[in-house]
């Protein structure tokens, strides 16, 4: 971790070891296989985990050219696990959700709400990172507003995807939709995504900024080392 001719440390890099993304990927792959075993419906399972199946190779292929901050990788794994659990049991039948429903006297299994809360919580930090690293935007109100818009666009796109699935699959798509008889399910889903995004920005923005700084320092050190300058 020394650079140039002085032999002194160029930047105090504090990002986790590079093996962490590999460990997270391994955990995700094992969880994916386990979630498929004995799934209530393999068709529903596939639809639920499709986003994770698409994201994983993209993250692997872009890791060297555009590595993300540790918090983003961890959040992506967390959301993938939520998708896999929902895919294994279907969102309306997740046992933990049934327990919460019975304990609190709710009318429905709330696991679907958790899934859509995560659908806002996780993409908010992903969008924040891409916008900060690829546009002139800086932390502040405009960035947060645009992140929220991106999250709502993602949520709306997902709802359209569910609508198309319902048109194609008919009643067989009920487990995938997870409406549980709620005519306002789509609106609730988007509202939960918005709440998730707002909470995520409030809780994680400072941590995210610190990790972005560390990532920038690491990248600068790598570039300086390659050029042989300080």
From TrEMBL:
- Extract the InterPro entries matched here: YjdF (IPR058534), YjdF-like (IPR014509)
Work out whether the entry's keyword set contains Magnesium. Answer: no
* Membrane-crossing residue ranges in chain numbering: 21-39, 45-63, 75-94, 114-131, 143-168, 188-207
Annotated keywords: Membrane, Transmembrane, Transmembrane helix
The organism's place on the tree of life at top rank? Bacteria
Name of the protein in its database record? Membrane protein
Q: What is the protein's species of origin?
A: Paractinoplanes toevensis
């Amino acid at each position: 971790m020394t650079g140039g001719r002085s032999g002194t440390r160029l930047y105090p890099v504090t990002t986790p070891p590079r093996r962490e993304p590999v460990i997270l990927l391994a955990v995700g792959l094992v969880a994916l296989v386990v979630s498929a075993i004995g799934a209530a419906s393999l068709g529903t399972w596939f639809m639920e985990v499709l986003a994770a199946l698409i994201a994983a190779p993209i993250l692997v292929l872009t890791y060297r050219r555009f590595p993300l901050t540790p918090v983003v990788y961890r959040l992506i794994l967390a959301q993938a696990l939520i998708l896999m659990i929902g895919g294994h049991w279907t969102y309306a039948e997740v046992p933990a959700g049934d327990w919460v429903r019975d304990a609190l006297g709710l009318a429905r299994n709330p696991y679907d709400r958790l899934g859509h809360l995560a659908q806002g919580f996780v993409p908010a930090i992903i969008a924040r990172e891409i916008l900060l690293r690829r546009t002139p935007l800086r932390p502040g109100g405009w960035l947060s507003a645009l992140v929220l818009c991106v999250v709502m666009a993602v949520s709306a796109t997902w709802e359209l995807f569910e609508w198309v699935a319902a048109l194609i699959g008919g009643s067989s798509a009920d487990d995938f939709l997870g409406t549980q008889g709620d005519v306002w399910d789509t609106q609730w889903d988007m509202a939960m995504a918005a709440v998730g995004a707002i909470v995520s920005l409030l809780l994680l923005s400072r941590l995210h900024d610190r990790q972005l700084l560390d990532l920038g320092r690491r990248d600068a050190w790598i570039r300086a080392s390659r050029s042989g300058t300080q």
